[in-house]
Description:
Layout: H1 10-32, H2 37-74, H3 84-94, E1 100-105, E2 108-113, E3 120-124, E4 136-138
Antiparallel strand pairs: 1-2, 2-3, 3-4
Amino acid sequence: MKNNxxxxxxxxxxxxxxxxxILAGITIASLSGENGILKRAAQAKYEEQIGQTKDLISMxxxxxxxxxxxxxxxxxxxxxDNTIGNAIENAITSGTYPDANVTVTGGKIKIExxxxxxxxxxxxxxxxxxxxxxxATAAVPGA
Length: 143
């Protein structure tokens, strides 16, 4: 007598399902774990917004410094009580920053990115020279 059994056995089906469940578990863990892809993507977006905002601030600072020194030394404009630091602070606060909120208070520049409102960075602003200090993590009220 010939055995013409075609198809898969129940054991083969169970093994296949177990392997698929293991692969699904690994995939979910890599997506949502502590160092998962989703958290790294959010961190990358935060860092990108901080970086773009720092670049925009730097461009505003250099433009303000150039205009200040041009007016003072080339045009011979009397600057009065206006210092380079004041000119730079005005340029920073009047700048447009699409990815973050930028404030200047008490000699500090603070960047709060829109991607993550619980994190911010700040740096000192020298009122005499207009130099910006090293950027560091800042406290965010209510976060």
